[in-house]
Structure formats: structure tokens, C-alpha cells
Amino acid sequence: MHLVSDTIQTNAENEPDYSSLFSLLKSGFNTDKTRCIQWRKKQLQSLVSLLTEHQQEIKEALYRDLGKGETESWTAEIGYLLSDIRHTVKQLDSWADLRHVSTPLAAQPGRSYLQPEPLGVVLIIGAWNYPVQLLLAPLVAAIAAGNCAVLKPSELAPACSSLVARLIPQYLEQDTVAVVEGGKRETQGLLSLAWDHVFYTGGAQVGKIVMQAAAQHLTPVTLELGGKSPCVIDRSCNLTVTARRLVWGKWMNCGQTCIAPDYVLVDKHQVTAVIEALKAEIYRQYGNAPVASKDYGQIIHQRHYNRLCELLHEQNVVFGGERLPEQRKLAPTIVLNPDLNSPLMQEEIFGPILPIIVLENIEDSVAFIRHREKPLALYVFSEDHGFRDRLLSKTSAGSVCVNDTMMFMTNPALPFGGVGNSGMGRYHGKFGFDTFSHLKAVMVKSSKFDVKARYAPYSRWKLWLLKKLL
């Protein structure tokens, strides 16, 4: 068996050349073993073993990189993946089965169906904010669909990157799944190859680079990006429950979540009540000194910490703002009515700062959202079904959650993905299987009966008959 390290070389400019690694995985794919459903299930069960047998190491790595506590590490990373794998293994036979469709009269006698087949060798580029989940969840879908894959973990989460690179070869066959660590140089080297699919999770700026590189080989891409996900609070909502769920969704992972509520829209009659409810709930969940809570994480690196602190410059901070610079910690922070042209409202925050924008009327939220890029997620807290329906029908977002935050991620029957600037493509459950599959169209005809009207020489009678059949 070849080792991954044996297949990485450098070119004349001392840049990494992954051609040999790519060829190794192509050869592994061409053995056809990945087409076997039982083989796929066995690999997925090996991933279960990896996650359960090294659970403590994973938790420690997540704590070193992001300060994640045990409960958050389990629910958002390890437990999430285990649930995803169990669902995938349970449904895999039906997903991989032929999907029969109707056959028109003109093509009778015959039958038609879609045959799922693997794409080949795919590249999965993970993100640092959920460095285990966002790397391995696409891998689950890729393996389920019968592909070989190269994983590129984020170098910004070095503890998790190193752990994944060490563990994957111990549990998965090295001619079907490999891990490449590194930064920009290594990613560029990988993107120079003709993958059968590229799956990227991260920011829009790098997403453009990934898409441009993939275009050189006409490689399809899935881009899971982000954006400024709005949260609309209507006066009809249950404010106590709203505050509880909003605090949970916003400040999990210190706000470093692509689908975290980015800002809140509220009308002028409710703004004081909303702020007071949020403040009370922050104290309830994180204690009297939230920035020092054991359940509250840290900013991934110093550059991002400095950026977040700069976003607060000259803003109206009505709650929070405390900092522990040596630990890269910024307390849950609420900003009231920020300048809409400021970086705070022009960039995805991706941190523990929550702007609250006061509207004259909550119905104005539709125009406010439509005036901006389509978000990855939209949240609305309301018991007014008419208002909810108007908001959902007149705005666009990758996913929507009514009266909660982020919980759509727990439903494998729902796809996850962006729209417009927030991304393209989707995965989770069957949607992930389909993303990493080609649904080959097949028609099987009988030779016992033949409609000769479709053959030349043509006549008016043949044309009349064809019009009836087609």
C-alpha cells in the first residue's frame, strides 16, 4: 500500500505537486470497489469507529483551536456526524437504487430510469469554524455515493487538521481517501488538478478562486459560503422563547457559524423589550461574566479577533464588549442601530456581535432584506401566519427557520446550501448523495415492436401519426 506522503512531490518552483496522489486515488476508483454498496457501508462504519474511539482527542483538539466546550463539541461536531452517518447507512440502499420514471408512448415498449453512479475522485476543502463536521460531513456523502476523496482541512484549526490527517489513514483505505494539510500553497496545488467535483466551505472571496480554478477543467463545484443572515422579530412572537433561541443560535461557537443570525430587525415599539430579553438570556446561559464562561468559546486567531474589535469602532454598544485579549475572547455584544454603510453591516460578522436595526414598521423588513444579497439563512420569530407567509414568499434565502435558529440543520430530509452570493449546490442526507452522484439517464427499448412512422421516407400520414404519438 502506498502512503500519502510518498505521493506528494514538488516541481521546479518547489510547489507541491499532487499528481501522483491524484493518480493513486484514480487507480483506487478504477478498481470499482467503491461501487459496491457494502464497501461503502463498511467505510462509513469505519468513520463511526474513528469518531467514537477518538472522541476525547477530537474534543481536546476542538478546545485547543476554538475553545469549544464538551457539550458543544458533541452536539455540533461528533454527535452531528454520528447521526448523519447512521441516517446515511440506513437509507443508502434506497438512494443508490434505480429511480424509475415514465416512458412516453412514442418510446414504447420500453422503460426509463435514472441510475446513480459515482463521479470519481473529488476534492473536499473544509472550514475552520466547525473543522471536523464541515470536513467529514461532505466526506460521508462522497463515500456513500461511491467516490474517492482528498480532504483538505483548514490550516487555521491546526489541532483538528493534524488529528484528522493522523486518524483518517488508520480507518479508511489510503487509495480511496487521503488528507492533505497546508495553507494557500497546498490548496492551489490541489486546485490545479482535474477533479470530478470540488466541494468548498468558506468565504465568498476564496469561493471565487475555487470556482475559477475548477472552471479550467470544467469541474462542477459546490460552494457553501455565507453572508449576512437576518433575523426578523415580529411583535406577535413569544419573546421569552425568542430570546432563548436567538442567544443560543447567535453565540454558539462564539458567533463563528455561517448560519448564525447576523443582525436583527425589530420595530420601534419592541426594541427595548427585545434588548432586555436578550441581555437577561445571555446572563442566564453564560453567567454574570459571559466572556469567561466555560461554555463560551474563543476567536479562532488573532487577525480575526482584531477584525471583530475594529468592527465595534464608533458603534453604539448597548451590551457586552468586554474583552480578554490574551485568550482572544470577545463577550456577547449587542449594537443598536449601526451605520448601514459601516463594515459591521457591509461584511459578514462571523463573530459574537449582534446588530439590532430598528424599523418604523416590521413589514419594512421585506424591503430591507430584498435590498441586500441573498442570505444563507433567514430567521423569523412570529405567531402571525400572514406575516410569516409574506416574508417567506417575498424574500429568498438558502434555508429558513421560523421561531428558532439553525435547527433545520438537524433534519436530514432538508437540504443545506446557499443561493446567489451565499453559495451554490446543496448537501445533507439524500441531497448530499445526489451532489456526489451522476444520475445517469437510461432508456431500455424492446425490439419486438417498432413504430416505423419515425423513419424516412416521410409522408403526410406518418406526420399525422407522429403528432399523435409525441
CA radius of gyration is: 25 Å
Poorly predicted residue ranges: 1-6
How helical, in percent, are the residues? 40-55%
SS strand fraction = 15-25%
Say how many strands there are. Answer: 20
The CATH homologous superfamily of the largest domain corresponds to: Aldehyde Dehydrogenase, Chain A, domain 1
Q: What is the number of helical segments per DSSP (H or I, 4+ residues)?
A: 16
Description:
The structure is a single chain. This protein has 470 residues and is of the alpha/beta class. It has two domains: 4-225 and 422-441, Aldehyde Dehydrogenase, Chain A, domain 1, CATH 3.40.605.10; 230-417, Aldehyde Dehydrogenase, Chain A, domain 2 (3-Layer(aba) Sandwich), CATH 3.40.309. It is 40% helix and 18% strand. The protein has a seven-stranded mixed beta sheet, with helices on both faces. A six-stranded mixed beta sheet has the order 7-6-5-8-9-19, sandwiched between helices. α4 (70-96) packs parallel to α5 and α4 crosses α15 (429-435). Residues 1-6 have low confidence and may be disordered.
